[in-house]
Amino acid sequence: MSGPEGLRLNTEEQCYMPSSPTIGRPVAVLGIGSMGTAIAKALIEAGHHVTVWNRSRERLAGLTGCFVAETAVEACRDAEITFTCFSNLPATYDVLKQPGVVGALQGKALVPMSTATPDEVHGFQRFAQASGIDYLDAKIAVTPAQIGAPTAVIFFAGPQALFLRVEPVLRALAGRATLMGQRIDGAVLGDFAFLSVYFASTIGILHGAAFLRNSGLNIEQFFGLIPCFLDEINARSQSFRKMIVAGDYTDVQSALKTDLAGARLLANATANAGMQNLFSDALIELMQDAVAQGHGDLDSAAMVQAFSKIMSTPQPVEVPG
Amino acid sequence: MSGPEGLRLNTEEQCYMPSSPTIGRPVAVLGIGSMGTAIAKALIEAGHHVTVWNRSRERLAGLTGCFVAETAVEACRDAEITFTCFSNLPATYDVLKQPGVVGALQGKALVPMSTATPDEVHGFQRFAQASGIDYLDAKIAVTPAQIGAPTAVIFFAGPQALFLRVEPVLRALAGRATLMGQRIDGAVLGDFAFLSVYFASTIGILHGAAFLRNSGLNIEQFFGLIPCFLDEINARSQSFRKMIVAGDYTDVQSALKTDLAGARLLANATANAGMQNLFSDALIELMQDAVAQGHGDLDSAAMVQAFSKIMSTPQPVEVPG
After folding, report:
1. Which residues of A240-279 are buried (b: 16+ CB within 10 A; e: fewer)?
2. pLDDT value at position A2?
């Protein structure tokens, strides 16, 4: 079995399926942590010619059916697309600044998948443009276990032509590989919108479980119903969509002031269960703010208006590190 | 077509399907608002012999295939199960105290579906026991549009034998008709746990939409991805379940302190988008509290421990009305 020159084939023979030349494309994955491993495995499974590189070799043992490069430059030299899976963009720069790497990436697609801020991706765009690298930003909205799933979401941002060029490969990673726009911060912003939903929902689930447990009730039953709750929330979100697009919140399915009354009952119940009230207090504060802005009789979807209120003096929050 | 004596059949002939006597059971629905209408329609569609009553007659026009009673007592006299769909328990008492109603309900199942507090359902239990009425409490975790759906959740509480007696009828209302326990406040508590998830998730969705709109990005794309986000949240919740049951949060999928760093990035991004920061500040406060309790290096599921912290001096929250 021949691979790119000088590369060691990492395979247990019984697992290795030679890729179909009609679909297999040469790709590299730099940074083989838990996410990099999932990315590499999904690409291998889809029949691509995958070369991986990681600073330490221990993490590579579990990967079969791919080539292992000794250096980053060796990994991306023959790759049409290079995915980087480091913990952040500074760590990504460290690798890209190794001798020869930028040269090896020129004219090819580079897809960094690290967490980043809008400022950081703008900076990375300047670096990529100056280096002649085709930069497609990516932000992953799933855990490693969900990589490759039909419902997995990865946000992308960058030139549409570049996205279309690599899209068939991206589909192997996420059934819902989504170009959020050609502006380079689109993926970061899409991921923040996902995090709004993800953080709030998971905290709500944990609070519900804590409440039942503190009340002496069965949490297995509760967790068994979560898919049904999420179905109901999905149905509700589609009504939100219609109202927000129309800018009309008067077709009330549930009025904001009714929800506020419900949140107050919840606060009372959690206090009676001997729990701290940070969670329900936060719900009440958010709803009260929207009611104070005059949306109480409207559908709760009108909270989108309350959140959108432009402050006269924006207060940037300091980000550590 | 003969009905209970003195009852007017409310039907357009072309819509009326006589119920199969093998499955049709005589039931009553008191209070025909939007939820009562949905309940009555689902029962009619399932082939039950439904009699409805409402204080005003206007709301009854849309209901066909059922009998309309002139009084509440007339409606429940021959019903094996009476569902009440008033806005709260005080309004329910008002109807039950009409002459003859309590007598008509003796030895039969009464299922009040109003919003209520644990104290109120305990009071209602005393009333039902003193009156010889078989009381099964119900709390509805879906909008009227979802009544009858296979994934619709309605929580019930009361004697298991009573639940089993009426369960086939309840299944017509909600595929996931769930007995939360024999203690009478079980349905109320289950509904509060649902509200934790529902309020937090819907607010998270509205905040995500507001963020994208304020950033000049497409919200249609975002709403199209909501089912995928909820899939990811469901997968995560099943890992929460395992950790909470085991009481072990050390198999970290996402550490609490990592989520806190993400919430801080979100706060910075919303501030930069010119939005008010109530939402992200609330996330940060909740996560910081759990980190301060020593859970920062554990999986975020450990927030369930932070919520459960017993306060030394519980502060009941005043509930209006």
Report:
1. bbebbeeeebeeebbbbbbbbbbbbbbbbbbbbbebbbbb
2. 42
